[in-house]
Design goal:
Length: 461
């Protein structure tokens, strides 16, 4: 049975890169009826914060990445790491390193001078039992290093995404498993967790490729079979540099707060670096689960294109029933002190094609919430023309309140006053909405309560 996992370190909010890694693991598990596990890697007490863990869980839930197992916390598994440390020490596969920072620095300095690669020279692996005992008795602090077998040769794996990868074990030194403060390093804890939790497939960022050979050596030392690895390319901004705050929002929460639908961000992230049908960009969650294939993940970095996200978000907004869309708009309206009313539903089909986000509805159509709406610059100039409005309300009131009749009345009125309709209509639009652009004026008026429109026309008169 397939088991995947997402293993964030709670050192910040859930970044879109992390969310995409989580999402690929989620899709993989769902596609094959497997299990998706969540593990919080909080062994670094200085950088990990419980509020970040909380936030990561909230973002995952919002995005629809529901996990089946966990969240496990590494900080609660210290005894487990300790027991495997003891096992490796006993079997001579790991050893205590008493070297101080100064000693290590001096060693590296000498290597640099000799033009050699800087690496641990394994000196503590050659300590005698007596020397070790003496140092322990003195209470000297120590780290624990893996004893990398000298003759191990090529370490290789078939990466689900990248294909065959190999490195020579001679490039690795005896790296640290447990720091002198007793905390396990990422590589050590991750192996113990992935194995003991039964993880079968590990999909993670390609920045972890250098860690994978080390992890393979730890699996071997413990006599365990490795999971299948897959390394996903990075995400870049449009300028082809690593995606960062400079490119705008990078946290999942920020997208929620901007008014992106979780299903749209899900859709967008699932396509970030994976290609299925070049002519299609909008998918439901189920379709993405059915389509998912790690072989379709590209080898090269994916570019985060905000315009594409906007497009996908709009398409998902259009897929929602208008009642549901209005429900989703509600918190954004309320944040501005506006109240959503039943008639607003009629404006959804008129405005959705102009919206990128839920927030846009509130910003573009503030005039349906309040008489104190904003007036755009162009509308301001139009309003200065002070065209006639007297009697218009009465004429409109005498006819049925639908687009067709509204148009007839406005045309006749403009003609009567000797004003070209194409000059007059923008004036009416500016009076009732404060905007110089918008949906068809007559349909807009029809969708607005008659009383609201007439009130504005009369007030201006
Ligand atoms: N805690 C690691 C990270 O956030 C997990 C890496 C992995 O998936 O193995 O980068």
């Amino acid at each position: 049975m397939i088991k995947t996992r997402f293993a964030p370190s709670p050192t910040g909010f859930l970044h879109v890169g992390g969310a995409r890694t989580a999402l690929f693991n989620y899709l993989f598990a769902r596609k094959f009826g497997g299990t998706f596990l969540l593990r919080i890697e909080d062994t670094d007490p200085e950088r990990s914060k419980p509020e970040y863990s909380e936030q990561i869980l909230i973002s995952m839930k919002w995005l629809g990445l529901d996990w089946d197992e966990g969240p496990y916390h590494q900080s609660q598994r210290m005894d487990i790491y300790k027991s495997y440390t003891e096992q490796l020490l006993k079997e001579g596969k790991a050893y205590r390193c008493f070297c101080t920072q100064e000693e290590l620095e001096e060693m590296r300095e000498q290597q640099r001078k000799a033009g050699l690669p800087t690496r641990y020279d394994g000196r503590c692996s050659r300590l005698t039992q007596e020397e070790i005992k003496e140092k322990l008795d003195k209470g000297m602090p120590y780290a624990i290093r893996l004893k990398v077998p000298q003759d191990r040769g090529i370490i290789a794996w078939d990466d689900m995404v990248k294909g065959h990868i190999e490195i020579n074990s001679s490039e690795l030194d005896d790296f640290i498993l447990v720091r002198s403060d007793g905390t396990p390093t990422y590589n050590f804890a991750v192996v113990i967790d992935d194995y003991t939790m039964g993880v079968t497939h590990v999909l993670r960022g390609e920045d972890h490729i250098p860690n994978t050979p080390k992890q393979i050596l730890i699996y071997e030392a413990l006599g365990w079979e490795t999971p299948v690895f897959g390394h996903v390319p990075m995400i870049l901004g449009k300028d082809k540099t690593k995606l960062s705050k400079r490119h705008g929002a990078v946290g999942v929460e920020a997208y929620r707060d901007e008014g992106y639908l979780p299903e749209a961000l899900f859709n967008f992230l699932a396509l970030l670096g994976a290609s299925y049908d070049p002519d299609r960009e909008v998918y439901t969650k189920q379709e993405l689960i059915d389509l998912f294939d790690p072989k379709k993940i590209g080898l090269h970095a994916a570019v985060f294109d905000p315009d594409k996200l906007n497009y996908i978000n709009r398409e998902h907004m259009k897929m929602l029933p208008p009642e549901e869309l209005l429900e989703r708009i509600k918190p954004f309206a309320e944040a501005k002190g506006f109240k959503v009313e039943p008639f607003h539903i009629k404006l959804i089909p008129l405005l959705v094609d102009r919206m990128h986000t839920l927030k846009d509805f509130v910003e573009m159509a503030d005039y349906i919430f309040t008489d104190d709406f904003s007036i755009d610059e162009k509308a301001q100039t139009i309003l200065e023309k002070n065209m006639p409005l007297d009697g218009l309300s009465d004429e409109l009131k005498a006819q049925p309140w639908d687009a067709e009749h509204i148009e007839q009345v406005l045309r006749a009125y403009a003609q009567d006053k000797g004003i070209k309709p194409r000059d007059y209509f923008p004036f009416v639009r500016a009076v009732i909405s404060g905007k110089s652009v918008g949906p068809s004026l007559f349909h807009l008026m029809e969708a607005m309560p008659q009383e609201m429109v007439l009130r504005r026309l009369t007030a201006r008169n």
